[in-house]
């Protein structure tokens, strides 16, 4: 299990606390420092069963500068979104937990973190 975090994020800290309380074995990836490649983002999206716009923090300053809210949310624009996430990792929703069964969840709630633990 791996968890992508921003240490300044309260949701990330809560997820880590829950993982620790449950005795989970996991690896921390500080994705703002260890930026995921476009291929890694594609792989996580596949595991999540989501599209890149589904995990994009559109309220961030970078998102507003790029005008992401106006970008098309369709298959033809998918690579453009992924490239933006790789170039601006702060836009990636967090925390993302990759589960042992090959799936992943966005662990913003206790329920989602527990879901990842049960997989």
TrEMBL record:
State the superkingdom: Bacteria
- SUPFAM superfamilies on file: Thioredoxin-like
- Please give the InterPro entries that the UniProt record associates with this protein: Arsenate_reductase, Arsenate_reductase-like, Thioredoxin-like_sf
Q: Which family does it belong to?
A: Belongs to the ArsC family.
Q: Keyword set for this entry?
A: Oxidoreductase
Protein name stated in the entry: Arsenate reductase family protein
UniProt cross-references to PROSITE patterns, sorted A to Z: ARSC
User: Pfam families of this UniProt entry?
Assistant: ArsC
